[in-house]
Amino acid sequence: MDLKALWLGWRRDIIRFVALCSAALVLGLVINHLVGRARQARQQLTGMLPRGLGGLMSGLDDAADSAVGPLATGATWTYRAPVAPRQWVWIRDRSGSVTVEPTSGDSLEVSAVKRFGHSDPGTVRIVAAPGSDGITICALWGRGDRDNRCGPGEAYHQRHVSHNDVRVNFTVRLPRGVAIGATTVSGAVRVVGASAPVVAGTVSGDVQAETARGPVNAYSVNGSVRASMRGFADTGQVKVMTVNGAVTVELPARIDAAVDANTVNGTIESDFPLTVGSKFVAHHAAGTLGAGGRRIELNSVNGSIRLKRIGQK
Fold it and tell me: What is the CB-side half-sphere exposure of residue 131 using CA atoms within 13 A?
C-alpha cells in the first residue's frame, strides 16, 4: 500500500475523530450550561417567593390537620369601622379563604366564619388591630399565645401550629380608594372590584386580584395567579409569581412600563410587544412599553405566563 495514501487516510481519520470529540465537548458544555441556567432560574424564582410572601410564611412548617368527615360551622364574627381612602386594610389568615368585594359606603365590613372538625374553635382568635395607616385583622391559632402578633406586613407573626383543623373564611367589603393586603397559607384569595393597590398571597391555593388602580403584588406557591389592573394609583412595581401554576396578567392598552417575564417549564404569550429570549430552558421575555419606567415582573417555575390587554380574549 502507498504510504502517502495511508498517511492521508490516517490523518483524515484523526481530524474526523478530533472534530467529533470537539463537537461532543462543545455540546456537553452547552448542555451543562443550559441545565445550570435552568437550575439557577428555578432557584432564583423559588427564592423570590419567601421574600414576596413575607410574614405569610410564619407557622408554615406544621400544617394544620385536614378534617375528616363533615365540618361544623361556628358563629359569625363581624367587624365594622370607617376607613379613609389611601389607608390599608390587612387580612391575615392561615387556614381558610379570603374574599374581598367592594362596598359603596365608607366603612370596612368584615365577617369571618370558623369551620372545624375535631378541633376546638376556641383555639383560634380573631383580632382587629387599628393603626395610623389603617386596620389589620388576623386569625391567630393558639389560645393565649403571646408570641402571636397581629399587624401589617412583617409585624404579623403566627407560631407553628399542629393538630388543629379549624379553618377561618373571611369575607371583606372594602370602601372605595382603600388599599387591601389579603394573605392566607392554605386557601384561595379573591379580590374583585378594588380601586387601590392590592397585595394578595397564599401558599396553597389560587389567587385572583382585580383593581381599577394598581399596582398589584400577587403570589402563590401551589396555585395559579391572575391579576388585572385598569390603571395605577402610584409608580410602584407589579410583581406576580407562583411556583406551580399559571400566571395571567391584564394591563391597560396604553401603559408605560418595563416588563420582565420568566418561566422554567411553560410558555410565554403576550398581547404586548416583548422580545422572547431562550427557547431551550428558562423561557424569558422582556420589553419596554410606552415610555417605560414602572417594573412589571412575572414569574412561574412550572406554568405558563400570559400578558393580556384588558378587553381582549
Answer: 16
184 vs 201: CA distance, rounded Å: 7
Phi/psi region, residue 118 (left: phi>0; alpha: psi -120 to 50; beta: rest), is alpha
Q: How many CB atoms lie within 10 A of CB 305?
A: 24
Q: What's the CA gap between 283 and 306, in Å, rounded? A: 13
Higher local confidence (pLDDT), 83 or 29: 83
Alpha carbon of 32 to those of 6, 25, 27, 28, 52: distances in Å? 38, 10, 8, 6, 30
Report the mean per-residue pLDDT for the chain: 83
Domain ranges of the chain: 1-57+198-313, 58-187
Please state the pTM of the whole predicted model. Answer: 0.80
Residue that is written with C-alpha cell 400544617 in the block: 63
Query: Are the C-beta atoms of 245 and 222 separated by less than 8 Å?
Result: yes
Which residues have CB under 8 Å from 43's CB, separation 6+?
A: none
